[in-house]
Amino acid sequence: MNNPKFPYSVIPVAILIILSGCSKSVILQSRYLPDNAPAAPDYAKAAYWAALPTVKDAADSVPFKSGQKDGQALAKADVFFIHPTIYTQQPEFGTFEWNADVNDAALNQRVDNSTILNQATAFNGSCKVYAPRYRQAHYYSFVTQNQAESEKAMNLAYLDIKAAFEYYLKNYQNDRPIVIASHSQGTAHAKRLLKEFFDGKSLRKKLVFAYLVGDITGIPVQPDEFKTIKPAQTPDESGGFAAWHTYARDFFPAKYTSNHFATCVCTNPLTWTLTEDYASQTLNKGGVGLKFAFIPHLADAQVHQGLLWINKPYVKGRSLLRNKVWHTADINLFWQSIRENVALRIENYIQQEQK
Q1: What are the DSSP calls for 272-284, one per residue?
Q2: What is the pLDDT of residues 254-289, one digit of tens each?
């Protein structure tokens, strides 16, 4: 695949079309009724974790022909991964619509086969992976005009994230370095978690880095989002954070101004800088597509006014791609770059701690 006579991957373009597309979503008809909320997860039970390093799960996977291995057994740090919204359809389990039921086996399988497989695995080379199941807010929460209902759904979801993280700290962390990683709805919760547990707190010293990706559920991460956790400007900094939101070149989302994209933090995941310098696809060591297929040199990247712009991904048939929003592929497109970067930041963190 790296033969210069054949510069594009032979992975069919349909993979990228499916990857970047949104799942079917519905409009919720009911009001938010807190007394009818699904039962809270019990994080003492492995069933309520989508990923644990002591259990065989989707987070242990690596793409075929990627040359990578699951390194959790010898990992020097942990990642607490908060997955994005997978709950988009009419509930298939239970009666409460606004938040997912963590006992919904079909939904849990969709979580495992999508975000855990394609996103959380980027960290298993150098981190033990912890990813809680949680009563995620329904997709409708982010498009409804009823902000009071939306806030209630998000607050319930965060209660689970907080409970899972407290259980992790008490039972698993054992003074190990921590990476926080998240996407979309998960990043909205990750911001709250960082403010409550790390920002200006004693636990701040255990934070290796935060990957706050795809935060388009509200106001994207701003440079002054935290008091003591700052956006990183180099690939090896520890203690800071990176963030990006992926769109087609020359495209601006409808809520660009109202959501304050122009002022948000946008990191180039190929150079790990905040500059608007173009990074070609040759810097992209590989991404993942449908069925967890590894695709070398999948995408280029350039920061532009708070957005991460890409040209059409470098796959066979790329001329057929018409996608403007690459939100669901924020991590997939740069899977190997993220994998190598978190390893670098962990080693740098450990070296600094040993001085």
Answers
A1: --SS---B-GGG-
A2: 999 999 999 999 999 999 999 999 999 999 999 998
The label of the residue with tokens 């003492």 reads 44
End-to-end CA gap in the chain? 43
Copy the structure tokens of residue 89.
């359809």
Tokens of 151: 């806030």
The single residue listed with the structure tokens 């409009």 is 27
Q: Cα-Cα-Cα-Cα dihedral of 267, 194, 156, 90, to 10°?
A: 20
Please, are residues 61 and 123 in contact by the beta-carbon 8 Å criterion? no
Which residues sit opposite 248 in a β-bridge? 310
Helix/strand/coil for 302: strand
Indicate the length of the chain as a whole number.
355
User: Coil, strand, or helix at residue 135?
Assistant: coil
Name residues whose C-beta falls within 8 Å of residue 175's C-beta, 6 or more positions apart in sequence.
206
Helix, strand counts (H, E) of the chain: 6, 13
Query: What is the reported pTM?
Result: 0.93
